[in-house]
Design brief:
Chain lengths: 137, 347
Protein backbone atom coordinates (compact mmCIF):
# COMPACT_ATOMS: atom_id res chain seq x y z
CA UNK A 1 0.00 0.00 0.00
CA UNK A 2 1.52 3.34 -1.03
CA UNK A 3 2.78 5.92 1.38
CA UNK A 4 0.08 8.43 0.36
CA UNK A 5 -2.71 5.98 1.13
CA UNK A 6 -1.24 5.19 4.53
CA UNK A 7 -0.92 8.90 5.31
CA UNK A 8 -4.50 9.58 4.27
CA UNK A 9 -5.83 6.63 6.26
CA UNK A 10 -4.08 7.67 9.44
CA UNK A 11 -5.29 11.26 8.96
CA UNK A 12 -8.90 10.14 8.59
CA UNK A 13 -8.73 7.84 11.59
CA UNK A 14 -7.13 10.50 13.72
CA UNK A 15 -9.74 13.05 12.78
CA UNK A 16 -12.56 10.64 13.55
CA UNK A 17 -11.14 9.75 16.95
CA UNK A 18 -10.46 13.35 17.93
CA UNK A 19 -13.78 14.73 16.77
CA UNK A 20 -15.87 12.02 18.39
CA UNK A 21 -14.21 12.37 21.77
CA UNK A 22 -16.44 13.84 24.49
CA UNK A 23 -15.65 17.47 25.24
CA UNK A 24 -14.14 18.21 21.85
CA UNK A 25 -14.17 21.78 20.59
CA UNK A 26 -17.09 20.81 18.38
CA UNK A 27 -19.25 20.54 21.53
CA UNK A 28 -18.96 24.28 22.18
CA UNK A 29 -22.06 26.14 21.08
CA UNK A 30 -22.02 29.61 19.64
CA UNK A 31 -23.88 32.32 21.52
CA UNK A 32 -25.03 33.90 18.25
CA UNK A 33 -28.65 33.72 17.10
CA UNK A 34 -29.71 31.84 13.99
CA UNK A 35 -30.38 34.99 12.02
CA UNK A 36 -27.04 36.51 13.01
CA UNK A 37 -25.14 33.45 11.85
CA UNK A 38 -27.04 33.60 8.55
CA UNK A 39 -26.35 37.31 8.16
CA UNK A 40 -22.64 36.91 8.90
CA UNK A 41 -22.06 33.91 6.65
CA UNK A 42 -24.04 33.43 3.45
CA UNK A 43 -23.54 36.84 1.89
CA UNK A 44 -19.77 36.37 2.13
CA UNK A 45 -19.90 34.55 -1.21
CA UNK A 46 -23.21 35.24 -2.89
CA UNK A 47 -26.36 37.31 -2.87
CA UNK A 48 -28.73 35.83 -0.33
CA UNK A 49 -31.67 34.08 -1.87
CA UNK A 50 -35.16 34.75 -0.45
CA UNK A 51 -36.18 32.06 2.01
CA UNK A 52 -39.47 31.62 0.18
CA UNK A 53 -37.62 30.44 -2.92
CA UNK A 54 -37.72 26.81 -1.76
CA UNK A 55 -39.92 24.59 0.30
CA UNK A 56 -38.60 23.64 3.71
CA UNK A 57 -37.46 20.16 2.72
CA UNK A 58 -35.39 21.50 -0.18
CA UNK A 59 -33.35 23.75 2.04
CA UNK A 60 -31.87 20.64 3.68
CA UNK A 61 -29.67 19.41 0.80
CA UNK A 62 -28.89 23.00 -0.11
CA UNK A 63 -27.49 23.58 3.38
CA UNK A 64 -25.37 20.41 3.21
CA UNK A 65 -23.98 21.68 -0.09
CA UNK A 66 -23.38 25.16 1.32
CA UNK A 67 -21.86 23.84 4.54
CA UNK A 68 -19.19 22.17 2.41
CA UNK A 69 -18.61 25.35 0.39
CA UNK A 70 -18.46 27.69 3.36
CA UNK A 71 -16.81 25.19 5.71
CA UNK A 72 -19.31 25.80 8.48
CA UNK A 73 -19.48 23.94 11.73
CA UNK A 74 -22.45 21.63 12.22
CA UNK A 75 -23.96 24.05 14.73
CA UNK A 76 -23.72 26.95 12.29
CA UNK A 77 -25.24 24.94 9.47
CA UNK A 78 -28.12 23.82 11.68
CA UNK A 79 -28.71 27.38 12.85
CA UNK A 80 -28.87 28.69 9.29
CA UNK A 81 -31.14 25.81 8.26
CA UNK A 82 -33.53 26.61 11.11
CA UNK A 83 -33.67 30.24 9.98
CA UNK A 84 -34.22 29.31 6.35
CA UNK A 85 -36.96 26.83 7.18
CA UNK A 86 -38.86 29.39 9.23
CA UNK A 87 -39.28 31.49 6.09
CA UNK A 88 -39.48 28.66 3.59
CA UNK A 89 -42.15 28.37 1.00
CA UNK A 90 -45.08 26.36 2.39
CA UNK A 91 -46.67 23.48 0.52
CA UNK A 92 -49.89 25.56 0.27
CA UNK A 93 -47.97 28.39 -1.37
CA UNK A 94 -46.29 25.97 -3.76
CA UNK A 95 -49.60 24.38 -4.71
CA UNK A 96 -51.28 27.75 -5.15
CA UNK A 97 -48.42 28.92 -7.33
CA UNK A 98 -48.70 25.86 -9.53
CA UNK A 99 -52.46 26.30 -9.80
CA UNK A 100 -52.01 29.96 -10.72
CA UNK A 101 -49.46 29.04 -13.38
CA UNK A 102 -51.83 26.46 -14.87
CA UNK A 103 -54.64 29.02 -14.86
CA UNK A 104 -52.46 31.55 -16.67
CA UNK A 105 -51.43 28.93 -19.22
CA UNK A 106 -55.08 28.22 -19.93
CA UNK A 107 -55.88 31.95 -20.36
CA UNK A 108 -57.18 32.57 -16.84
CA UNK A 109 -55.88 34.81 -14.09
CA UNK A 110 -53.78 37.88 -14.77
CA UNK A 111 -50.61 38.97 -13.05
CA UNK A 112 -52.68 41.46 -11.13
CA UNK A 113 -54.74 38.74 -9.53
CA UNK A 114 -51.57 36.79 -8.80
CA UNK A 115 -50.18 39.71 -6.90
CA UNK A 116 -53.30 39.97 -4.71
CA UNK A 117 -53.46 36.28 -3.87
CA UNK A 118 -52.45 36.09 -0.21
CA UNK A 119 -51.17 32.53 -0.68
CA UNK A 120 -48.58 33.73 -3.14
CA UNK A 121 -47.36 36.82 -1.26
CA UNK A 122 -43.64 36.71 -0.63
CA UNK A 123 -42.64 35.90 2.88
CA UNK A 124 -40.58 38.70 4.35
CA UNK A 125 -38.01 38.08 7.02
CA UNK A 126 -39.45 39.38 10.25
CA UNK A 127 -36.47 38.47 12.39
CA UNK A 128 -33.93 41.19 12.90
CA UNK A 129 -30.30 40.39 12.33
CA UNK A 130 -27.30 42.18 13.66
CA UNK A 131 -26.28 44.47 10.76
CA UNK A 132 -23.74 42.46 8.81
CA UNK A 133 -20.25 43.78 8.32
CA UNK A 134 -20.53 42.66 4.72
CA UNK A 135 -22.98 43.10 1.82
CA UNK A 136 -26.33 41.41 2.24
CA UNK A 137 -28.66 40.17 -0.41
CA UNK B 1 1.98 -8.51 3.08
CA UNK B 2 2.20 -8.16 6.85
CA UNK B 3 0.22 -5.20 8.19
CA UNK B 4 1.73 -3.01 10.87
CA UNK B 5 -0.38 -2.60 14.04
CA UNK B 6 -0.81 1.18 13.66
CA UNK B 7 -2.08 0.80 10.11
CA UNK B 8 -4.51 -1.93 11.13
CA UNK B 9 -5.78 0.19 14.02
CA UNK B 10 -6.36 3.16 11.71
CA UNK B 11 -8.51 1.16 9.34
CA UNK B 12 -10.36 -0.53 12.23
CA UNK B 13 -11.27 2.87 13.68
CA UNK B 14 -12.58 4.02 10.34
CA UNK B 15 -14.73 0.92 10.00
CA UNK B 16 -16.05 1.21 13.56
CA UNK B 17 -17.04 4.84 13.15
CA UNK B 18 -19.01 3.99 10.03
CA UNK B 19 -21.02 1.23 11.75
CA UNK B 20 -23.55 3.64 13.16
CA UNK B 21 -27.25 2.75 12.84
CA UNK B 22 -28.96 5.21 10.56
CA UNK B 23 -32.61 6.03 10.95
CA UNK B 24 -34.68 6.36 7.84
CA UNK B 25 -35.74 9.82 6.74
CA UNK B 26 -37.56 11.16 3.71
CA UNK B 27 -35.30 11.80 0.75
CA UNK B 28 -35.14 15.44 -0.29
CA UNK B 29 -33.84 15.28 -3.81
CA UNK B 30 -33.79 18.41 -5.89
CA UNK B 31 -32.51 19.82 -9.13
CA UNK B 32 -30.82 23.19 -9.35
CA UNK B 33 -28.04 24.76 -11.38
CA UNK B 34 -26.80 27.85 -13.09
CA UNK B 35 -26.48 29.23 -16.59
CA UNK B 36 -24.98 32.17 -18.38
CA UNK B 37 -24.48 33.90 -21.68
CA UNK B 38 -21.22 35.71 -22.29
CA UNK B 39 -20.18 38.26 -24.87
CA UNK B 40 -16.51 38.75 -25.60
CA UNK B 41 -14.66 41.40 -27.52
CA UNK B 42 -11.04 40.28 -27.58
CA UNK B 43 -7.80 41.62 -29.03
CA UNK B 44 -9.03 45.17 -28.97
CA UNK B 45 -6.82 47.37 -31.11
CA UNK B 46 -5.49 44.54 -33.24
CA UNK B 47 -6.29 43.68 -36.86
CA UNK B 48 -7.89 40.37 -35.85
CA UNK B 49 -10.32 41.56 -33.21
CA UNK B 50 -12.73 38.92 -31.97
CA UNK B 51 -16.40 39.38 -31.10
CA UNK B 52 -18.50 36.38 -30.13
CA UNK B 53 -21.20 34.99 -27.89
CA UNK B 54 -20.63 32.01 -25.61
CA UNK B 55 -23.25 30.00 -23.76
CA UNK B 56 -20.43 29.12 -21.41
CA UNK B 57 -22.44 27.23 -18.81
CA UNK B 58 -25.73 25.48 -18.52
CA UNK B 59 -24.91 23.32 -15.54
CA UNK B 60 -27.45 21.06 -13.90
CA UNK B 61 -26.95 20.12 -10.26
CA UNK B 62 -28.86 17.30 -8.63
CA UNK B 63 -28.50 16.72 -4.92
CA UNK B 64 -30.30 15.36 -1.96
CA UNK B 65 -30.15 13.89 1.48
CA UNK B 66 -31.08 10.29 0.74
CA UNK B 67 -31.12 9.31 4.40
CA UNK B 68 -30.34 11.02 7.68
CA UNK B 69 -26.58 10.92 7.22
CA UNK B 70 -26.16 10.26 3.51
CA UNK B 71 -25.91 13.00 0.93
CA UNK B 72 -25.47 12.81 -2.82
CA UNK B 73 -24.61 15.52 -5.31
CA UNK B 74 -23.77 15.62 -8.99
CA UNK B 75 -23.23 18.39 -11.50
CA UNK B 76 -23.37 17.90 -15.23
CA UNK B 77 -21.81 20.72 -17.17
CA UNK B 78 -23.06 21.66 -20.60
CA UNK B 79 -20.44 24.18 -21.59
CA UNK B 80 -19.90 26.30 -24.64
CA UNK B 81 -23.30 25.59 -26.09
CA UNK B 82 -22.95 21.85 -25.56
CA UNK B 83 -19.54 21.49 -27.17
CA UNK B 84 -18.23 20.28 -23.83
CA UNK B 85 -20.43 17.96 -21.78
CA UNK B 86 -19.02 16.20 -18.76
CA UNK B 87 -19.60 15.32 -15.14
CA UNK B 88 -18.02 18.02 -13.03
CA UNK B 89 -18.63 16.06 -9.86
CA UNK B 90 -20.67 13.17 -8.58
CA UNK B 91 -20.15 12.00 -5.05
CA UNK B 92 -21.72 10.30 -2.08
CA UNK B 93 -21.23 11.90 1.31
CA UNK B 94 -21.46 10.65 4.86
CA UNK B 95 -22.43 13.45 7.24
CA UNK B 96 -22.96 11.53 10.47
CA UNK B 97 -19.83 12.62 12.32
CA UNK B 98 -19.80 16.00 14.01
CA UNK B 99 -17.17 18.17 12.42
CA UNK B 100 -16.28 15.71 9.69
CA UNK B 101 -17.84 14.96 6.34
CA UNK B 102 -16.57 12.07 4.23
CA UNK B 103 -17.11 12.19 0.48
CA UNK B 104 -16.31 9.49 -2.04
CA UNK B 105 -16.55 9.76 -5.78
CA UNK B 106 -15.65 12.54 -8.15
CA UNK B 107 -15.43 15.96 -6.55
CA UNK B 108 -14.04 19.40 -7.21
CA UNK B 109 -10.67 19.45 -5.48
CA UNK B 110 -10.89 21.87 -2.53
CA UNK B 111 -7.49 23.44 -3.18
CA UNK B 112 -7.71 27.12 -2.28
CA UNK B 113 -11.09 28.81 -2.66
CA UNK B 114 -11.59 29.77 -6.29
CA UNK B 115 -11.41 26.27 -7.78
CA UNK B 116 -14.23 24.80 -5.76
CA UNK B 117 -16.20 27.52 -4.03
CA UNK B 118 -15.90 30.77 -5.99
CA UNK B 119 -15.82 29.74 -9.65
CA UNK B 120 -19.60 29.39 -10.37
CA UNK B 121 -20.60 32.31 -12.52
CA UNK B 122 -23.30 33.45 -10.13
CA UNK B 123 -20.64 33.75 -7.40
CA UNK B 124 -17.46 34.77 -9.26
CA UNK B 125 -17.36 38.58 -9.14
CA UNK B 126 -15.78 38.82 -12.59
CA UNK B 127 -17.08 37.27 -15.81
CA UNK B 128 -14.00 35.07 -16.16
CA UNK B 129 -11.27 33.37 -14.16
CA UNK B 130 -8.14 35.12 -12.94
CA UNK B 131 -4.70 34.49 -14.41
CA UNK B 132 -3.08 31.44 -12.90
CA UNK B 133 -6.32 29.52 -12.59
CA UNK B 134 -6.31 28.09 -16.06
CA UNK B 135 -2.79 26.80 -16.64
CA UNK B 136 -1.40 26.42 -13.11
CA UNK B 137 -4.36 25.38 -10.98
CA UNK B 138 -6.44 24.05 -13.87
CA UNK B 139 -9.82 25.32 -12.76
CA UNK B 140 -12.21 23.57 -12.69
CA UNK B 141 -10.08 20.70 -11.42
CA UNK B 142 -12.09 17.69 -10.31
CA UNK B 143 -10.66 14.33 -9.33
CA UNK B 144 -11.78 10.88 -8.21
CA UNK B 145 -11.12 9.46 -4.77
CA UNK B 146 -11.78 10.30 -1.14
CA UNK B 147 -12.30 13.70 0.45
CA UNK B 148 -12.81 14.57 4.10
CA UNK B 149 -13.75 18.04 5.24
CA UNK B 150 -14.99 19.85 8.26
CA UNK B 151 -14.87 22.76 10.61
CA UNK B 152 -14.44 23.02 14.35
CA UNK B 153 -15.50 25.97 16.45
CA UNK B 154 -12.75 27.82 18.24
CA UNK B 155 -14.56 29.32 21.16
CA UNK B 156 -18.15 30.61 21.01
CA UNK B 157 -17.69 33.84 19.07
CA UNK B 158 -17.91 32.26 15.64
CA UNK B 159 -14.22 31.69 14.90
CA UNK B 160 -13.42 28.28 13.47
CA UNK B 161 -10.73 25.96 12.19
CA UNK B 162 -11.39 24.58 8.73
CA UNK B 163 -9.77 21.54 7.17
CA UNK B 164 -9.84 19.39 4.07
CA UNK B 165 -7.84 16.36 3.03
CA UNK B 166 -8.10 14.30 -0.12
CA UNK B 167 -6.64 11.22 -1.75
CA UNK B 168 -7.21 10.98 -5.49
CA UNK B 169 -6.00 9.54 -8.78
CA UNK B 170 -4.32 12.88 -9.46
CA UNK B 171 -3.29 14.73 -12.57
CA UNK B 172 -1.66 12.78 -15.40
CA UNK B 173 0.20 13.88 -18.50
CA UNK B 174 3.46 14.05 -20.38
CA UNK B 175 6.77 15.09 -18.94
CA UNK B 176 6.85 18.91 -18.74
CA UNK B 177 3.38 19.01 -20.21
CA UNK B 178 0.78 21.67 -19.58
CA UNK B 179 -1.06 21.11 -16.32
CA UNK B 180 -4.44 21.96 -17.79
CA UNK B 181 -4.24 19.00 -20.12
CA UNK B 182 -3.62 16.63 -17.20
CA UNK B 183 -7.20 16.68 -15.94
CA UNK B 184 -9.80 13.97 -16.49
CA UNK B 185 -7.59 11.20 -15.12
CA UNK B 186 -10.79 9.60 -13.87
CA UNK B 187 -9.70 6.02 -14.47
CA UNK B 188 -5.93 6.32 -13.85
CA UNK B 189 -5.25 4.72 -17.22
CA UNK B 190 -1.76 4.91 -18.66
CA UNK B 191 -1.46 5.56 -22.38
CA UNK B 192 0.66 2.46 -22.88
CA UNK B 193 -1.88 0.23 -21.19
CA UNK B 194 -2.53 -0.65 -17.59
CA UNK B 195 -3.05 1.65 -14.65
CA UNK B 196 -0.86 3.77 -12.44
CA UNK B 197 -0.56 2.85 -8.75
CA UNK B 198 0.54 6.28 -7.58
CA UNK B 199 -1.94 8.48 -5.82
CA UNK B 200 -2.11 12.18 -5.10
CA UNK B 201 -2.66 13.52 -1.63
CA UNK B 202 -3.64 17.02 -0.64
CA UNK B 203 -4.87 19.15 2.21
CA UNK B 204 -6.12 22.61 3.04
CA UNK B 205 -6.13 24.02 6.56
CA UNK B 206 -7.18 27.43 7.66
CA UNK B 207 -8.64 29.65 10.28
CA UNK B 208 -11.68 31.87 9.92
CA UNK B 209 -12.11 34.85 12.19
CA UNK B 210 -15.74 35.02 11.11
CA UNK B 211 -17.00 37.91 13.27
CA UNK B 212 -13.97 39.97 12.29
CA UNK B 213 -14.49 39.14 8.63
CA UNK B 214 -11.05 37.64 8.02
CA UNK B 215 -10.03 34.18 6.92
CA UNK B 216 -6.78 32.61 5.79
CA UNK B 217 -5.71 29.15 4.68
CA UNK B 218 -2.92 27.22 3.01
CA UNK B 219 -3.24 24.33 0.57
CA UNK B 220 -0.89 21.64 -0.69
CA UNK B 221 -1.18 18.78 -3.15
CA UNK B 222 1.50 16.42 -4.35
CA UNK B 223 1.67 13.29 -6.44
CA UNK B 224 3.09 11.61 -9.52
CA UNK B 225 1.90 13.09 -12.80
CA UNK B 226 3.85 11.21 -15.45
CA UNK B 227 1.83 9.11 -17.86
CA UNK B 228 4.23 6.15 -17.64
CA UNK B 229 4.10 2.69 -16.16
CA UNK B 230 7.60 2.80 -14.68
CA UNK B 231 8.95 6.33 -14.33
CA UNK B 232 7.57 8.83 -11.87
CA UNK B 233 7.71 12.62 -11.84
CA UNK B 234 6.14 14.66 -9.06
CA UNK B 235 3.85 17.64 -9.42
CA UNK B 236 3.45 19.66 -6.25
CA UNK B 237 1.00 22.54 -5.82
CA UNK B 238 1.29 25.01 -2.97
CA UNK B 239 -1.29 27.67 -2.33
CA UNK B 240 -2.53 30.29 0.06
CA UNK B 241 -5.77 32.21 0.17
CA UNK B 242 -7.15 34.99 2.34
CA UNK B 243 -10.13 37.29 2.45
CA UNK B 244 -11.23 40.29 4.47
CA UNK B 245 -14.70 41.76 4.65
CA UNK B 246 -15.71 45.03 6.30
CA UNK B 247 -19.24 46.28 5.86
CA UNK B 248 -19.77 46.46 2.08
CA UNK B 249 -16.11 45.98 1.16
CA UNK B 250 -14.53 42.66 0.36
CA UNK B 251 -10.86 42.12 -0.43
CA UNK B 252 -9.57 38.65 -1.28
CA UNK B 253 -6.51 37.09 -2.79
CA UNK B 254 -5.11 33.74 -3.69
CA UNK B 255 -1.78 32.44 -4.94
CA UNK B 256 -0.76 29.05 -6.33
CA UNK B 257 2.69 27.73 -7.19
CA UNK B 258 3.30 24.55 -9.12
CA UNK B 259 6.64 22.73 -9.03
CA UNK B 260 6.76 20.21 -11.84
CA UNK B 261 9.61 17.70 -11.94
CA UNK B 262 11.05 16.83 -15.30
CA UNK B 263 14.02 14.67 -16.35
CA UNK B 264 15.92 17.95 -16.69
CA UNK B 265 15.23 20.99 -14.53
CA UNK B 266 12.08 21.46 -12.50
CA UNK B 267 9.45 23.77 -13.94
CA UNK B 268 8.08 26.44 -11.63
CA UNK B 269 4.78 28.13 -12.39
CA UNK B 270 3.17 30.80 -10.21
CA UNK B 271 -0.18 32.55 -10.49
CA UNK B 272 -2.60 34.47 -8.36
CA UNK B 273 -4.90 37.40 -7.94
CA UNK B 274 -5.99 40.16 -5.62
CA UNK B 275 -9.51 41.48 -5.88
CA UNK B 276 -11.58 44.17 -4.22
CA UNK B 277 -15.34 44.57 -4.47
CA UNK B 278 -17.61 47.18 -2.92
CA UNK B 279 -21.39 46.78 -2.76
CA UNK B 280 -23.09 50.09 -3.47
CA UNK B 281 -26.61 49.46 -2.22
CA UNK B 282 -28.34 46.18 -3.01
CA UNK B 283 -28.00 46.34 -6.79
CA UNK B 284 -24.56 47.53 -7.84
CA UNK B 285 -21.03 46.34 -7.10
CA UNK B 286 -17.85 47.68 -8.72
CA UNK B 287 -14.92 45.28 -8.72
CA UNK B 288 -11.22 45.57 -9.49
CA UNK B 289 -8.91 42.62 -9.89
CA UNK B 290 -5.19 42.26 -10.56
CA UNK B 291 -4.01 38.80 -11.56
CA UNK B 292 -0.81 37.44 -13.01
CA UNK B 293 0.90 34.28 -14.08
CA UNK B 294 4.61 33.50 -14.32
CA UNK B 295 5.43 30.53 -16.49
CA UNK B 296 8.70 28.87 -17.59
CA UNK B 297 10.13 31.20 -20.19
CA UNK B 298 8.71 34.67 -20.64
CA UNK B 299 6.43 34.23 -23.61
CA UNK B 300 3.43 33.12 -21.57
CA UNK B 301 3.89 35.49 -18.64
CA UNK B 302 1.06 37.94 -18.27
CA UNK B 303 -0.46 40.34 -15.82
CA UNK B 304 -4.02 41.53 -16.08
CA UNK B 305 -5.72 44.52 -14.53
CA UNK B 306 -9.50 44.24 -14.64
CA UNK B 307 -12.24 46.76 -13.94
CA UNK B 308 -15.70 45.33 -13.49
CA UNK B 309 -19.23 46.23 -12.56
CA UNK B 310 -21.92 43.85 -11.31
CA UNK B 311 -25.60 44.73 -11.49
CA UNK B 312 -27.88 42.46 -9.51
CA UNK B 313 -31.11 42.27 -11.45
CA UNK B 314 -32.71 39.88 -8.96
CA UNK B 315 -31.25 37.83 -6.09
CA UNK B 316 -30.84 35.01 -8.61
CA UNK B 317 -29.52 36.90 -11.59
CA UNK B 318 -26.87 39.46 -12.34
CA UNK B 319 -25.15 41.15 -15.23
CA UNK B 320 -21.40 41.53 -15.09
CA UNK B 321 -19.17 43.57 -17.33
CA UNK B 322 -15.39 43.83 -17.18
CA UNK B 323 -12.58 45.47 -19.10
CA UNK B 324 -9.26 43.62 -19.03
CA UNK B 325 -5.91 45.30 -19.59
CA UNK B 326 -3.45 42.52 -20.40
CA UNK B 327 0.29 43.12 -20.20
CA UNK B 328 3.01 40.77 -21.39
CA UNK B 329 6.80 40.81 -21.00
CA UNK B 330 8.89 43.03 -23.29
CA UNK B 331 9.29 41.34 -26.63
CA UNK B 332 6.02 39.48 -26.28
CA UNK B 333 3.54 42.31 -26.03
CA UNK B 334 0.23 41.97 -27.83
CA UNK B 335 -2.83 44.05 -28.58
CA UNK B 336 -5.12 41.88 -26.49
CA UNK B 337 -7.15 44.00 -24.14
CA UNK B 338 -10.68 42.66 -23.92
CA UNK B 339 -14.23 43.29 -22.77
CA UNK B 340 -16.35 40.58 -21.20
CA UNK B 341 -20.08 40.85 -20.59
CA UNK B 342 -22.01 38.16 -18.80
CA UNK B 343 -25.61 37.56 -17.83
CA UNK B 344 -25.98 34.75 -15.33
CA UNK B 345 -28.75 33.08 -13.40
CA UNK B 346 -28.90 30.53 -10.60
CA UNK B 347 -32.03 28.42 -10.44
Amino acid sequence: MSKQIRMFGVAVASAVVILTMPGSVQAQRSGRSDVNIWAQTCANCHTNQPRSKYESVKWEPIMVHMQLAARLTDDEAQAILRYLKRGARSEDQAAASEAQAESIDSGGASDGMRAKDPAIRKSKPTEKATPPRRPGG
Amino acid sequence: MRRRPAEFLAWALIAASMAIPMSTAAQSLMVTGYADLEVFVNKIGSDNKEFYFDNHHFNIIAMGTISENMFVAAEVEYEHGGAEIKLEYGYLGYTGIDGLKIMVGKFIVPFGRFNRDLHPTWINKMPDRPNGFKDILPQTYSDVGFWITGAAAAGTSGNRFVYDAWLTNGLMGDEAGGIRGMRDNDREKISGGGRDDNKTVGARVGFEFAPAGFDIAVSVQTGNYLDDAVENLTLTLLGADAAYRYNDLEVRGEIVRATQETFADDLNKTGGYVQAAYRVGPKVEPVVRWSARQMPGESADQSRFSFGLNVFVTPSSSVRIAYHINTEEDGFKKENDSIALQWNVVF
